[in-house]
UniProtKB/TrEMBL annotation:
Name this protein carries in UniProt: Methylenetetrahydrofolate--tRNA-(uracil-5-)-methyltransferase TrmFO
GO molecular function, one term: tRNA (uracil(54)-C5)-methyltransferase activity, 5,10-methylenetetrahydrofolate-dependent
Biological-process GO terms, alphabetical: tRNA methylation; tRNA wobble uridine modification
Keywords: Cytoplasm, FAD, Flavoprotein, Methyltransferase, NAD, NADP, Transferase, tRNA processing
Annotated Gene Ontology cellular component terms: cytosol
Domain MnmG N-terminal: 5-374
Cofactor: FAD
Catalytic activity: uridine(54) in tRNA + (6R)-5,10-methylene-5,6,7,8-tetrahydrofolate + NADPH + H(+) = 5-methyluridine(54) in tRNA + (6S)-5,6,7,8-tetrahydrofolate + NADP(+); uridine(54) in tRNA + (6R)-5,10-methylene-5,6,7,8-tetrahydrofolate + NADH + H(+) = 5-methyluridine(54) in tRNA + (6S)-5,6,7,8-tetrahydrofolate + NAD(+)
Top-rank taxon: Bacteria
Gene coding for it: trmFO
Species the sequence originates in: Roseovarius azorensis
Family matches, as HAMAP family: TrmFO
Function: Catalyzes the folate-dependent formation of 5-methyl-uridine at position 54 (M-5-U54) in all tRNAs.
Lineage of producing organism: Bacteria, Pseudomonadati, Pseudomonadota, Alphaproteobacteria, Rhodobacterales
Keyword Methyltransferase included in the entry's annotation: yes
Length: 455
């Protein structure tokens, strides 16, 4: 029992942690409460189910920090990235995933691994001994959340995460909409036409903003506050910040030409991205919302091309719990008051599928090394992985700690490169070159260590 790694939560982080630890030779038990205990956001009992967007965001490993994180996870033999690549959908320069086959594949790989057992049980307290990783994600159950809050001596921090709606493709009027990735980005025609675009003129946009502002919204429960993560703001909250906010955000019209009216530049454009391999479902990009269902259907049908839209899923909003990691976790992601317990994934204060899986990858390797009596070298801070773990375990300001996506602002500066927009291409390439070298060295050191332990 004491040499088995127990992982609570079978989402992105828990699945990746289990895969990494098992491949290092450690026995793993995944405790996943679904489907016996459900959540309002999940639909299945599959591991690594995607409940919000189906995008892993940019796959550019030379000019984008999340693309660099993709590269590092692939180099480490990550299961999440391998299955994402296997079930990839066209999305311009982004990595979009066919969510159901992806989750089923992750589940099958873990279930079939000889060193992994999956138990569909709910854990409601922090364990007194053994080796554990808590990777319960943003929808941590009430019982376990209360146990974590009691142990840390502070009330759990929370923000609200909003889900974007999904539209059936055959209900979209393609005489008004067209297919094009922004700036025709992509190496193939399929990539260059990965997004479905719905144009608005100025009057349509202004009417849409008016409807957003007066639409009936979901009320918060007593004691809850709307501490939204800025990367996932509901569109009506963005509209409340200024009438032009959406037009300079998810509805920006740049890099697009409407073939139905090529001489007229749209005032704003709503983009939809394919959500499954069949191309039957499209999600409205950046349109997370807390409007009530009736309001959503009427407001979204104001969008040209979506007048008769049928929705496979409407938007929603949920509480997203995370801990104040800079004060609670050490550099090995262990709870300072209970070092046999590690935390991984969104509950640590990283944001996004990729970042969550990345922290699971590290937690799995760190826990397995400890069980095997090996000392892993410190995760290099100049890698994307290192920049994230450094941020959540001490680099962030604890008093104002909020969930964070990976970004180059978390990286140590590279000397000799210009700041600002003009110098960013060379600067970002320097970041990624340095990170790849650092990460490759960290992985190679572990291979050498494995060889030294061989009989």
């Amino acid at each position: 029992m004491s040499e088995t790694l127990h992982i609570v939560g079978g989402g992105m982080a828990g699945s990746e942690a289990a895969w990494q630890a098992a491949n290092m030779g450690v026995d793993v038990v995944i405790h996943e409460m679904r489907p016996h205990v459900g959540t309002f956001a999940h639909r299945t009992g599959d591991l690594a189910e995607m409940v919000c967007s189906n995008s892993f965001r940019s796959d550019d490993d030379e000019q984008n920090a999340v693309g660099l994180l993709h590269w590092e996870m692939r180099a480490a033999g990550g299961l999440i990235m391998a299955m994402a690549d296997r079930h990839r959908l066209p999305a311009g320069g982004a990595l979009a995933v066919d969510r159901d086959p992806f989750a089923r594949s992750v589940t099958a790989h873990l279930m079939n691994h000889p060193k992994i057992i999956v138990q569909h049980t709910e854990i409601t307290s922090l364990p007194e001994g053994g080796h554990w990783i808590i990777a319960t994600g943003p929808l941590t159950s009430e019982g376990l959340g209360q146990a974590i809050a009691a142990e840390t001596g502070a009330q759990a921090l929370a923000f609200f995460d909003a889900i974007a709606p999904i539209v059936y493709h055959d209900s979209i009027d393609m005489s008004r909409a067209w297919m094009q990735s922004r700036y025709d980005k992509g190496d193939t025609e399929e990539e260059r036409t990965a997004y479905l675009n719905c144009p608005m003129d100025r009057d349509q946009y202004e009417a849409f903003i008016d409807a957003l502002l007066v639409a009936e919204k979901t009320e918060f429960h007593e004691g809850e506050t709307a501490g939204y993560f800025d990367g996932c703001l509901p569109i009506e909250v963005m509209a409340e910040r200024g009438r032009e906010t959406l037009r300079h955000g998810p509805m920006k019209p740049v890099g697009l030409t409407n073939p139905h009216q090529p001489e007229i530049k749209p005032w704003a454009v709503v983009q939809l991205r394919r959500d499954n391999a069949l191309g039957t479902l499209y999600n409205i990009v950046g349109f997370q919302t807390k409007m009530k269902y009736g309001a959503q259907t009427s407001v979204f049908r104001m969008i040209p091309g979506l007048e008769n839209a049928q929705f496979a899923r409407l938007g929603g909003i949920h509480r997203n719990t995370f801990i104040n990691s800079p004060t609670l976790l050490d550099a090995q992601m262990r709870l300072r008051t209970r070092p046999h317990v590690r935390f991984a994934g969104q509950i640590t204060g990283v944001e996004g599928y990729v970042e969550s899986a990345a922290m699971g990858l590290l937690a799995g390797r760190l826990a397995a090394a400890e069980i095997l009596g090996r000392a892993l070298p410190r995760v290099p801070q100049d890698s994307a992985m290192g920049a994230l773990i450094h941020h959540i375990t001490g680099g962030a300001e604890a008093r104002t700690f909020q969930p964070m996506n990976v970004n180059f602002g978390l990286f140590r500066p590279v000397e000799g490169f210009k700041g600002g927009r003009r110098g960013r291409i060379d600067r970002y390439r320097a970041y990624t070159d340095r990170a790849k070298a650092a990460w490759s060295g960290w992985l190679e050191a572990q291979i050498a260590d494995d060889m030294s332990f061989a009989p």
